[in-house]
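Sharing a chain and its predicted structure for anyone who wants a worked example. Both blocks are below, sequence first, C-alpha cells second.
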Amino acid sequence: MSNSLKGFSAGILAAVFYGTNPLGTLPLYADGISSGSVLFYRYALSVIFFAAWLLARGESLRIRWGHAIRLAVLGVMFSMSSLTLYESFHYMNAGVASTILFSYPIMTALIMVMFYHERVNWRTTAAIVLAVSGIALLYRGGGEGGSKLSATGILLVLFSSLLYAMYIVYVRQFCITGMSAEKSTAWIVFFGWLGITAFMLFKGEPLQLLRGTQWLWGAQLALLPTVMSLFLINVAIKCIGSTPTAIMGAIEPLTAVAISCTLFGEPFTLRLSAGIVLILSAVILIILRKQTA
C-alpha cells in the first residue's frame, strides 16, 4: 500500500471514529454525568486500552525524559482542546459549537504557511471553503431561538479549534524516530488524562462514579473516538501531512449526522444532503491535489 493511500485511508477512518462521540456522550449526559467526569473516564480507559495493546505486542512502555516532554506537550494540547470544547456546550448549542470548531483546518493551513512556509494552492483553498460551507449546512446557524451567541462560548470554541490545529501541526514536528505510532499515542493520551485530572482538581469538580451500562458507554468513548481515532490521525499526518489530514476531518460531522438520523430519529433533509455533497467534494479535491503533487 502506497503512503498516500495509507494516509488517506487512515485520515478517513480517524474522522469516522471521532464522529462516534455522540454514541457514548449523549447517554452519559442524559444520566447526569458531568463533562469533566466523561472526559476523565474517556482518557483513563484509553490509557488502559493502549497499555494492554502495547503489552500484547511485547513492546516496552518506557520512554526517555526528552521524549516525555514532547509527548506531554501534545497530550496537554489535545486534552485542553477537548475540555474547552466541552465547556463551550454550557454557553451555546453543541451543533453550533461543532460548526465553529471546524475552523481548525483554516488555522492549520495558516500555521503551516506562516511558520513552515507551506505553499497553499487553489485546490487546498477551494477544499477548505467547500468543507466549511458543507459543515455550516449540517447545523442550523445562530443561537437557540435566534438569540445572540455567547461571546464566552465562541472564544472557548475558537481556542479549542486553535489547540487542535496546533496538535495536528506539531504531531508531525515532534515525530520521534524509532517510536511506534501506538506507543507515542499511548503516552499522548496518558499526559492528556493527567491534564484533565489537574483541571478537575483546580476547578474543584468532583469525579462521578459510573454504574452498570454507563461503563459500556465510557468504553466506547475510549476505544473509538480516542484510541482508534488518535492512532489513525497520527498515521495520516505522517503519511500525507497536517493540512490534508485536517481537511479530511470534515467527515467527522458526517458520521455524527448519520448516527443522529439512524439511531436518534432525526430527519434527513435536503439541507443535510447538500452539506454532505459539499464535504465529500472537499475530500475528493484534496485527494486529487495530493495525487497531482
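Comments welcome. The chain has a mean pLDDT of 82.
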